[in-house]
Specification:
Number of domains: 1
Helix content: 40-55%
Shape: elongated
CATH class: Alpha Beta
Mean pLDDT: 95
CATH architecture: 2-Layer Sandwich
Number of strands: 4
Strand order of the largest sheet: 2-3-1-4
Structural class: alpha+beta
CATH topology: Alpha-Beta Plaits
Order of helices and strands: EHHEEHEH
Largest sheet: 4 strands, antiparallel
């Protein structure tokens, strides 16, 4: 299944929500899993992004739906990066020489 890296930044409203209810993070994880997207790793970070998630999704449509669903709430902004396994990437490059 394709993997994606989600770089997330909380909005002002999102920071209020997480401060008042830290368990909201896990509730959203449950919503994501119900969309058929598996969370492989999740990190809270310091700096430009508040969270980094590595997920598996069936396809680009599923990850687009996740992004629209979550960002439409006004509590988070997400940048999505498709992730290619490095061994697969190297093999692809060898085939196209």
């Amino acid at each position: 299944m394709p993997r994606y890296i989600l770089l997330s930044t909380l909005t002002t409203e999102g920071r209020k929500t997480v401060k008042q209810n830290p368990n909201r993070i896990k509730e959203v994880d449950d919503e994501i899993e119900k969309m058929g997207i598996k969370i492989l790793k999740q990190y809270a970070t310091l700096g430009t992004f508040d969270f980094i998630n590595i997920v598996e999704a069936p396809n680009n449509d599923a990850i687009s739906k996740l992004s629209i669903e979550l960002t439409s709430r006004g509590t988070i902004q997400i940048k999505t990066l498709p992730a290619i396994d490095i061994d697969s990437f190297v093999e692809y490059l060898k085939k196209n020489d």
